[in-house]
Amino acid sequence: MRLTRYFLPVLKETPSEAQIVSHRYMLRAGMIKQASAGIYSWLPLGYKVLRRIEQIVHDEQIRAGHIPMLMPTLQSAELWRESGRYDDYGQEMLRIKDRHDRDMLYGPTNEELITDIFRSNVSSYRDLPLTLYHIQWKFRDEIRPRFGVMRGREFLMKDGYNFDLTKEDALHAYNRHLVSYLRSYERMGLQAIPMRADGGPIGGDYTHEFLVLAETGESEVFYDSEITDLTFGEREIDYDDHAQCKAVLEEFTSRYARTDETHDEAIFAEVPEERRRVARGIEVGQIFYFGTKYSEAMGANVQGPDGQSVPVHMGSHGIGVSRLLGAIIEASHDDKGIIWPEGVTPFHCGIVNLKQGDAEADAACESLYKALTAKGLEPLYDDRKERAGGKFATMDLIGLPWRITVGPRGLKNGVVELTSRRTGESEEMSPEAAAARVAEIYAGV
Ligand code: 5CA
Q1: Residue of 188, 323, 325 to mutate, ligand 1, most atoms within 8 A of C-beta
Q2: Average pLDDT over the chain, rounded to whole?
Q3: pLDDT beyond 90 at 328
Q4: What is the domain count for the chain?
Q5: What average pLDDT does this structure show over 233-262?
Q6: Residue nearest (by alpha carbon) to ligand 1 atom 14
Q7: Domain check: are 21 and 62 in the same one?
């Protein structure tokens, strides 16, 4: 993409309404614009990152054997009356009447709708196990929407639902989700720690939240510092192997790690004092096992192997897709702007032309642009007639992990400069070598 043909409305001023760094940088980098309280338009740069995060979530869910689909944002109140949550959900639910005076709502989550789809189509244990998911906009009329996309009213969520014959199978689905979430967050360059949590309006007493440690996080968390040494890494996993998935769950949840809702001082006191941590975290996902709560209320039964009709065991599993942009920026930035991890960056690298209009520099940038594109990469070429300082400031703000700087002086010696956004280190090399290096970096992502 050439910057002169793109839409990147970067702000010079720091917006006064933004209290935390991710919100400030998302506004300044022209990624989002508030439409009304807690509701945002996703401008091209923000939309690109959102799509990359979504793609990682899709990849990892499909790898785990979960099936993508799409349910609507607007739901009928009927189903929610069946489960009893129409009254329970309270003011967070946005209620709407259609022209026939029928009660509708903008879905805050989808347990009812998916259970209805299940009961209408599945009646035998032979069709189980089954896990369906979608990535769809949700609406929760939060009393205090704040911090930009972090606590929105309209937000994008991946929500998945498992249907199993037995509790044991449903717990395997739970473990599968835990593993797939660990992989997803790591691909986004994040460490998200599973912590024992509270079921809230979704229900169930077996649930973990995934938290990214950050001072600006809304949740208070208590944990054993040893847990921060764990990474899932490159290991192979067979998602059909119950024991293997359970071992990962045990590895990642055996140390003390809880949110304030489930925190227990007495148990926490057993953690050696030097490892006890009290901190804040951003909740980027949550998994639930809630057994037959919805299947019993809504009559989602299957015929078991012995011919008896039994309610299915269920769980639901969410990832805060739009919130993740905020969480990643909170975890990865400096005083100049965002530093995108390679896994989610909107463009693979930037090209800065130090002297736009100089025939040689322009030609070198064009050929570099073509070389990168031919390697399947997407560069952002700053081809504006601006001074170098302004171009660098824009690149630093929008946070592309790699920048190639092209100027007449370097070209005289046949070199351009490749700079890492994270370390600030630069290296001179030929344009061909720079393109090859960037391709090599992304081959492993
Ligand atoms: N049905 C379950 C799981 S599918 C559910 O709704 N879970 S949840 O309430 O925990 O939401 C899942 C994730 O969505 C949360 O972990 C959080 O990352 C994100 N989320 C929740 N509320 C908001 C909000 N107001 N703004 C942005 N993201 C949110």
Answers
A1: 323
A2: 97
A3: yes
A4: 2
A5: 97
A6: 320
A7: yes
